[in-house]
Amino acid sequence: MIHYILQVILFQLLFLVVYDLFLKKETFFNYNRLYLLGTSILSFVIPFLKFEAIQQTIPQEYRVQLPAILIGNSTSEASLATSVMLDEVVVQQPTFSWTTIVLLLYGLGVLFSIVVFALKLRKLYKLKKLATQESFGNYTVATIPNSEAAFTYLKTVFLGAKISEEQKNYILQHELVHVQQRHTLDLLFFELLRIVFWFNPLVYITQIKLQVLHEYTADRIVASKDKAEYYQSLLQEVFRTTTVSFINTFYKSSIIKNRIVMLQKTNSKKIVQLKYLLIIPAVCAMLFYTSCSNEKSEELSEEANLTMQTDSEVMQKINELSEAIMKKGSISDEEAKALKFLATEANEGDKIYTSVQEYLDDTQKSLLSMKDLTKVPTYPGCSGSNEELKKCMAQGIATFVMENFNQDISKDSKISGKQRIVVMFEIDKNGAVVHPKAKAAHASLEQEAIRVVSKLPKMIPGEHDGKSVGVQYTLPIIFKINE
């Protein structure tokens, strides 16, 4: 979720930069309105769009969102074996976590924003009740006693009784443009965004820019008949209004100067409309980014930075290697084979290799890709395609480990902080879990991980060319211990 929010803010910022640099000063006000509304929506949608065609144009070593998939022979059996990297399982003791605090703060922010919005509506409807209303077909004029305010909400134009008749005509024409073009709906849309994304300053900034555009549009239409008089009307009035963010107000002193400057500006040439094509490379760049990024891999990389304390130099190197693999997100078949060689204990009668490369050369022919499996192993109760089976398998194993892992082991072993355990096991050609191994900073954690994994239920084995094969899994476990 954090990754999604950061993407939304980044995309909104990029769209606003394009607007400020290339579009803001142009007189295509309706196009600019569509741009601000459209890009605001796109910013929330694009992070969900991931195109496989784009992913395939990137070299594999950079596609960190793909799982590490490895298949090869076991040194102790002649059967075919496949290696799969499972998602990390986080085992955490019940606690009032930072996530809970963040969600609580977010909820309070949403509640506060709703209250503020409700108070604005209450203030507006109190004014409407106080005002004298007169209907004119598709709009209503509400005259506010003892006031110089002038603004529009939906189909109602609010005018202060103190406004002179000479100025009232111009102001009414101006406000009717807001009614006809339904500008209030734009602002209400951003009010909803401000409630849900109250912490995002770019939502507020975009709403302000849209309000300014609304004023430019109305100014241009009304002043097209007699600009000089309209300028004077703008300058002579006392700039007073009610402070509600989702109304279109005539009197807003902070932008009056800009409105006059924009009125004096000649219409932009049609050729300038080509600037709007800049949105195409911007959107393409965003789609390229979202298609080649993966929230899960970012989280795994963060967890991979955990340091395991050990006196063993070999264990330290193993930790460094494990972190490097997690950061990379995937490993080649050859790298996987080398890792398997290092992790395999020699049995009596086995050939003794003097180097990793010698082992790789000897076994290279037996190496194949996960996609060559006719059917992947199946966890009890799972069904569907291979992709569905893989997801169901990962979920089933994760749930089983979290439910059966003894969290009290930290008290007995006096372990604290975040502990990572890497478990390796194989689902053999009979569907049984065999050869479980574990690596951790503490022996008690290794023993507990092996105990839990060994209790996994019997599964339906994977198949290759109609024959059952063994599939090797690697399961990282993060054990978070409360201090």
Question: How would you describe this structure in keywords?
Answer:
TonB_C; 483 residues; 7-stranded mixed β-sheet; transmembrane helix; 2 domains; alpha+beta; membrane; Beta-lactam_resp_regulator; Peptidase_M56
Protein model, in words:
Helix 1 packs antiparallel against helix 10 (279-291), helix 2 (29-45) runs antiparallel to helix 7 (201-223) and helix 4 packs antiparallel against helix 6. The chain has 483 residues and is an alpha+beta fold. Strand 11 (462-464) and strand 12 form a beta hairpin. Strands 1, 2, 3, 9, 10, 11 and 12 form a seven-stranded mixed sheet that branches. Strands 4-5-7-6-8 form a five-stranded mixed sheet, with helices on both faces. It starts with a helix and ends with a strand. It has 17 helices and twelve strands. Helix content is 51%, strand content 15%. The longest helix has 33 residues, at 98-130. The model is unreliable at 59-82, 295-311 and 363-369 (pLDDT under 50). It folds into two domains: 2-52 and 100-117 and 164-291, no CATH class; 60-97 and 295-481, no CATH class. The radius of gyration is 33 Å and the shape is elongated. Residues 162-263 form the Peptidase M56 domain. Residues 420-481 form the TonB C-terminal domain. The chain crosses the membrane at residues 6-22, 34-51, 96-119, 274-291. One of its GO terms (biological process) is transmembrane transport. It holds the Pfam family Peptidase_M56.
